[in-house]
Design a protein that fits this description.
It is a single chain. Helix 1 links the parallel strand 1 and strand 2. The chain is α+β, with helices and mostly antiparallel strands. 33% of the residues lie in helices and 21% in strands. It has two domains: 38 residues, no CATH class; 47 residues, no CATH class.
């Protein structure tokens, strides 16, 4: 694998999923991770912070979870506006 020259390419998005505990219990580690990523040529990070329970609740009570966005194959969307089969696919890929 070759590291692309950041001065000649348009960059790439790094999709990352974190549990909410990363933002409360591991702030220093998270800060160091993102700092290192950008210092080494990272151009953009798409961070998702959602857990399985929230997605299950959103499927059962969509009116209360209109604020939940997820990544879907290259774009972001409101979870509750996705087709049920897509919601289930995303739910099944959520580890925590």
């Amino acid at each position: 694998i070759v590291k692309p020259a950041t001065d000649i390419h348009a960059g790439a998005v790094q999709n990352i999923k974190f549990s909410s505990q990363m933002f409360t219990e591991h702030k220093d580690e998270l800060k160091a991770l993102l700092k290192t990523y950008f210092e080494n040529g990272g151009a953009q990070a798409m961070i998702t912070v959602v857990n399985r329970g929230d997605l299950e609740n959103a499927m059962n009570e969509p009116e209360k979870y209109k604020h939940v966005f997820v990544r879907v194959g290259g774009f972001s969307a409101r979870f509750v506006e996705l087709a049920k089969d897509i919601q289930l696919d995303i739910l099944n890929r959520t580890l925590y």
